[in-house]
Write a structure and sequence with these properties.
Length: 729
């Protein structure tokens, strides 16, 4: 939001500040990075009251708006937004708009305002058109507004105004697919008639069907349910679609430091649900939570050379406090091995102190230079990092695999994303350790793989550097064996990419902040008071069974708007309650994944909802797995390798061994060359987030049979295993 300190003088000093962060118009402006200043003032029902109550700092160079929603049988709905001093004469307007045939413009009633623009009387402004999901309101904009320095529109409430430059208003309208008709309205007391300057000066008769969304792929459902908010479809522009989904679903807000994002409650709650599950599981393995400082001295960070090598450019340093240089710069943790292990060395004396199993939930900072992507690659992210010390290689190995299996379960059982567990090659493993295991996921549409989480066997490398040794039962000094393992908020991005659709998020029930939303179908004939006690009863019956549930009884939004809103946020089940449902003691249950709609009697409701949530959870995994499996192809000859990458496939090939780093490099280079040649391109940008080259993802634990005499796809040497390749994030 812009600085709006200049509005303080004009707003009534007694008016309390409002939190606008959940206002859909403000959110949309922010999502589009459109500068605006939103401020509160005394409630003002009419344009005249506004002018009297809220004088503008720029005087005549700024204007509030006067807004009139007209309804005409033949020509449909027309919203006029004009300068407050404009003369809006209904009969003149029909002429000005050159409305074909007989026009009978009448002011729309409040129910229509609410239904079409999501606003109560006195709260409409040109920005309200964003709520017209059916796109059946035509906007007529006074050209006089465009000559102002700033235009002030109510953000759906008449105790606040949003000021923005006319060019930004036009930008907003373009972004929400509204093309206004521009008219010059006469000023009060002026003689000359208004002129129309629009490229489309007349308003054509209302079409039989509401105009289709800009995006023709978008589904059109029943009246009031059309979801037009996403600007991009998943298949049309995956990157833009992703941004659209995470912003409009209120998961992410952008921030003014590149690579840093705000995790809003809708995504943070998902993280908390993952944390809750994970904490229960690690406790069963004897792992305890703890917290270590976020700063690390240079000496400590660089103690294990292999560990920082290659990572050094990503380390962020604090060099000053206020204006003074620190005596020595300190690093912000990119990971905590070097922070935790000196303490391990202190605490571990005897074999009786082992195993030591600690976990911490924290943020880490890695100053990446590749293009950032929210959740997937960010400069600060949240994670858990587990660090353990054991008396034997095998004990450490068990821990590594237990942690990795928890990661597999987070993806598969919570996020409904199938993963391939396996070993990283020598080239791809964590250099500071003995071996790295990983779970690898597949992102549809982009056809890329992504590392889901890793679990490392650190061997005794760190123990040597940090003197983590203990007296064994025979009194001999031994070095400890260690593991470390991490799972990050990347999980959330992977889940969004795998399951989201052209309407927005689709959340697996186990991680959905809300599993059910109840929407009362209020109307002129059926006010909320008629439905609310039945709705409360429904809410209670679900809450009693621990279903995460909410009753959306807000009166500023109509049911259609709420359907679209919660669909976009991916809530697994919507329960619609109308007068007929009340009468029959039933509800309508609408399922986000698959779109099923069924009537369910109240007595069966809780059981049906719980069964449906479980069904959705397993169906989402099954569908994602089927899709992934369809894109996981065995290839035994090089000629088929790149063509399969081009088909967005992951490729499983015979391989001469995980230590053959040179041949791995060869595949990477060769696949890059062939892919670029296919595209007629010469190179890739160093900052590009992704590459066309294939990387090894893992040597899957689960190996298909390898026939005698099978050759490595690259070297032609005898193959020792199958290895999984893909383009990756
Ligand atoms: C960036 C800067 C400095 C990754 C870094 O995977 C150091 C590092 O050590 C670094 N980026 N790593 C590897 C992290 C290894 C390991 N740490 C505990 C994990 C899981 C959790």
């Amino acid at each position: 939001m812009e600085d709006f300190s200049d509005m303080k003088s004009s707003a009534d000093a007694a008016v309390a500040a409002i939190d606008f962060s959940s206002n859909p118009i403000i959110q949309r402006l922010d999502a589009l990075s459109i500068p605006h200043a939103t401020y509160s003032h005394v409630p003002s029902m009419t344009a005249e009251e506004l002018v009297a109550n809220v004088p503008l700092p720029g005087g005549g160079s700024e204007s509030h708006t006067k807004n009139l929603l007209f309804k005409d049988k033949k020509h449909g709905l027309i919203l006029v937004s004009a300068c407050t001093d404009a003369e809006v004469d209904t009969r003149e307007l029909a002429k000005l708009l050159k409305l074909e045939g007989k026009a009978n413009l009448r002011l729309a009633d409040e129910a229509t305002l609410l239904e079409k623009l999501g606003c109560m009387k006195g709260c409409v402004g040109p920005l309200s058109v964003v709520n017209n999901v059916e796109k059946d309101v035509r906007l007529v904009l006074d050209e006089g507004l465009l000559n102002k320095a700033r235009v002030h529109s109510h953000p759906m409430r008449n105790d606040a105004s949003t000021a923005l430059a006319p060019s930004d208003l036009m930008k907003f309208l373009r972004e929400v697919d509204v093309e206004p008709v521009l008219l010059t309205f006469p000023k009060k007391g002026d003689a000359p008639p208004a002129k129309s300057h629009s490229t489309k000066p007349t308003i054509p008769p209302k079409p039989k069907d509401a105009p289709k969304a800009a995006n023709k792929d978008k589904k059109q459902t029943k009246k009031g349910e059309t979801q037009l908010a996403l600007k991009w479809s998943k298949s049309e522009n995956f990157a833009m679609w992703y941004t659209d989904v995470i912003v409009l679903s209120e998961m992410i807000s952008y921030y003014d430091i590149s690579g840093c994002y705000i995790l809003r409650p809708w995504s943070y709650k998902i993280w908390e649900l993952i944390q809750d599950w994970f904490n229960v599981q690690i406790r069963k393995l004897g792992v305890e939570n703890s917290y270590f400082p976020m700063f690390v001295s240079r000496d400590r960070l660089e103690k294990e050379k292999d560990h920082v090598e290659g990572f050094a450019p990503e380390v962020a340093w604090v060099t000053k406090s206020g204006n003074d240089d620190l005596a020595a710069p300190i690093a912000v943790r990119p990971t905590s091995e070097t922070i935790m292990y000196p303490a391990f060395a202190d605490w571990i004396r005897s074999h009786r102190d082992l195993p030591l199993k600690l976990n911490q939930w924290s943020n880490v900072v890695r100053w990446e230079f590749k293009d950032p992507t929210p959740f997937l690659r960010t400069r600060e992210f949240l994670w858990q990092e587990g660090h353990t010390a054991h008396a034997s290689f095998d004990d450490a190995n068990v821990m590594v695999r237990q942690a990795l299996d928890l990661y597999r379960r987070v993806y598969e059982e919570l996020l409904a994303v199938p993963v391939v567990p396996g070993y990283k090659t020598e080239k791809e493993k964590f250099a500071g350790g003995h071996s790295t295991t990983t779970v690898e996921a597949y992102i549809p549409v982009s056809g890329r793989a992504i590392q889901g989480a890793t679990s490392h066997h650190l061997g005794q490398n760190f123990a040597k550097m940090f003197d983590i040794n203990y007296q064994d039962a025979n009194g001999e000094t031994q070095l400890a064996w260690q593991t470390s393992w991490g799972l990050t908020t990347r999980t959330i991005g992977v889940m969004v990419m795998v399951h989201g659709d052209d309407t927005g998020l689709v959340l697996p029930p186990r991680v959905a902040p809300l599993q059910v939303v109840i929407v009362p179908i209020v109307s002129k004939h059926c006010p909320l008071s008629t439905l609310s006690s039945y709705c409360d009863e429904i809410l209670k019956s679900l809450e009693d069974r621990d279903v995460r549930c909410k009753l959306d009884d807000r009166d500023i939004y109509n049911p259609g708007w709420k359907y679209a809103h919660w669909e976009q946020k991916g809530v697994p089940i919507r329960i619609e309650v109308g007068p007929r449902d009340l009468e029959n003691r039933q509800v309508r249950m609408v399922v986000r994944f698959g779109g099923e709609k069924v009537d369910v009697g109240f007595d069966d409701l809780a059981a049906s909802v719980i069964a449906k949530l479980e069904d959705v959870q397993s169906s989402m995994l099954a569908r994602a797995r089927e899709f992934r499996d369809d894109h996981l192809v065995k290839v035994t000859e090089w000629k088929d390798f790149v063509p399969n990458l081009e088909l967005h496939n992951l490729v499983l090939t015979p391989w001469c061994g995980g230590t053959h780093t040179n041949w791995e490099e060869w595949v990477k280079e060769k696949s890059r060359e062939e892919s670029l040649t296919n595209r007629g391109e010469e190179g890739e940008a160093a900052t590009a987030a992704t590459s066309v080259a294939a990387k090894t993802l893992c040597i899957p634990f689960e190996q298909p049979e390898l026939e005698e005499g099978t050759k490595c796809i690259a070297s032609g040497l005898p193959a020792t295993c199958w290895i999984l390749w893909g383009r990756s994030y």
